[in-house]
Amino acid sequence: SGVGRNWGWASAGSSILAEFGTLHMEFVHLSYLTGDPVYYNKVMHIRKLLQKMDRPNGLYPNYLNPRTGRWGQHHTSVGGLGDSFYEYLLKAWLMSDKTDTEARKMYDDAIEAIEKHLIRKSNGGLTFIGEWKNGHLERKMGHLTCFAGGMFALGADGSRDDKAGHYLQLGAEIAHTCHESYDRTTLKLGPEAFKFDGGVEAVAVRQNEQYYILSDASQFPNFVLQLNCVCLFPSFLQAIDKYCRVSGGFSGVKDVYSSSPTYDDVQQSFFLAETLKYLYLLFSNDDLLPLDNWVFNTEAHPLPVLHLANTTLSGNPA
């Protein structure tokens, strides 16, 4: 019909932060290739609108109503629904050869608010990122949130107030927490979400959060490439091969705490598009795709760093 439609469950048909915020890299590059600024202008328009809006506690809610231009329910997550929005602010800066200072400022402002309002340390000393829901911090960390450990490390260079060491340490602590969420399962595969309530730490409590669906260690390899840390992955690879391989490919499992897991009978597309691709890159030589020249989008597609100071938008020599 040519008419856009949002999901009803998304705060009464709102648009989702991780979706409308995760266009920057691809659309900027598309304008670079075609010489047509329409794609670049679209994503910059979104960015300008977001900059103007008041944000509760400096946090970006996951939902924005496209008809009213107002936030939907005040739910902020660095995991699902929000994750790649923050990733792309940082990577837009990197892809621009660190000239897109607006993207860097938005990233710095966002992570300062995240650290202040969402990041806590458990009784057992595990650093985790919770979720903000209607004025309350839920002490639950999603599997997808684990990418943030690497994001903090990747963004350490160029951080405000000479806090590179702080963000490297913070990234390492979050990575350790995610490693624990894997290690505390029977299968050594991470659950979809894990709690930090009372005596429960880095463990999924609800049955509907105990599954694993072939995701790439919470997109963690996305950034572990920059961390040069492969401590998690030999056991992770062995667990996938042992518990997820079936005759026709690979399947997700319904309960990572069960010694005799049952399959969900689905091989998710991101298993090929992300998990295996990142693992291949992770164990390849660093010069395969030098990170000074390439930035990976969230699905591990390599996009070149654009030295825009020396080019026009169309990619021809200035």
From TrEMBL:
Report the GO molecular function annotations: calcium ion binding; mannosyl-oligosaccharide 1,2-alpha-mannosidase activity
Carries keyword Hydrolase?
Answer: yes
The record lists Ca(2+) as bound by 298
Q: Among its keywords, does the record have Metal-binding? A: yes
InterPro entries per UniProt: 6hp_glycosidase-like_sf (IPR012341), Glyco_hydro_47 (IPR001382), Glycosyl_Hydrolase_47 (IPR050749), Seven-hairpin_glycosidases (IPR036026)
Enzyme class of the recorded protein, top EC level? hydrolase
Q: In which pathway does it act?
A: Protein modification; protein glycosylation
As recorded in UniProt, its EC number(s) are: 3.2.1.-
For the biological process aspect of GO, one term held by this record is: carbohydrate metabolic process
Task: Please report any disulfide bonds recorded for this protein chain, giving both cysteine positions.
Answer: 146-178
Q: Which Pfam families match?
A: Glyco_hydro_47 (PF01532)
Q: Which GO terms describe its cellular component?
A: endoplasmic reticulum; extracellular exosome; Golgi membrane
Identify the cofactor(s): Ca(2+)
Which UniProt keywords are listed?
Calcium, Disulfide bond, Glycosidase, Hydrolase, Metal-binding
Record's superkingdom?
Answer: Eukaryota
Annotated PANTHER family: MANNOSYL-OLIGOSACCHARIDE 1,2-ALPHA-MANNOSIDASE IB, MANNOSYL-OLIGOSACCHARIDE ALPHA-1,2-MANNOSIDASE-RELATED
Q: Which family does it belong to?
A: Belongs to the glycosyl hydrolase 47 family.
Q: What is this protein called?
A: alpha-1,2-Mannosidase
Organism from which the protein derives: Mystacornis crossleyi
**UniProt lineage:** Eukaryota, Metazoa, Chordata, Craniata, Vertebrata
Which gene is this protein's source?
Man1a2
